[in-house]
Amino acid sequence: MTNRAEPNTADDQLTGALEHELTLFTRKAFWRFWTTRYPEVIGLDQTTYPYLAVISARPGLTVGELARMFNVDKSTASRHVAKLTSAELARVVDNPPNARTQPLQATEEGRRRVAIVQADRAAWLHGVLADWPEQDRRDLARLVARLNADLDAREQRTRGR
Question: Which pTM value belongs to this model?
Answer without folding.
Answer: 0.76
